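Hello Y.,

Per our agreement to keep a running log of every chain we model this quarter, I'm adding this entry. I've kept the format consistent with earlier entries: sequence first, then predicted structure.
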Amino acid sequence: MITGSCLCGGVRFEIRKAVGPFELCHCRRCRKVSGSAFLAGVYVRSDDFRLVAGKDLISTYEAPILRNPPAYRVSFCSRCSSPVPNPAPNSEWCEIPAGLLDDDPELKPDKHIFVELKAPWFEIADQLPQYDLPALLELGR
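Predicted structure for the entry above:
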């Protein structure tokens, strides 16, 4: 079992297994949510996610649609403001902000996405594949 929590520990969760992808997203919204050059997100099946504590602390914000649905949905702890996982109802997948994990998910990042929107002050220095929006659309994302 892999555990995780927000900064204050009020929102705690467990996941049975992280299956990926493990993406480093450089879109403007993810940069703003993370306060960093990118958001590191690990995907798990919603059935493998269990909220242990803090449901009452989770707030959700749905930003307006920019191009196509769905809207950008972000959940966060109302006490410490950490982004937290909050699977959408009936969703097969749940994205976990990787920085919340207390344990090794036994996965490594596998790609950078929305690289055309990356922060101008950040240089990607690894050898991971890099995808821009047109490439993601070709992949069916």
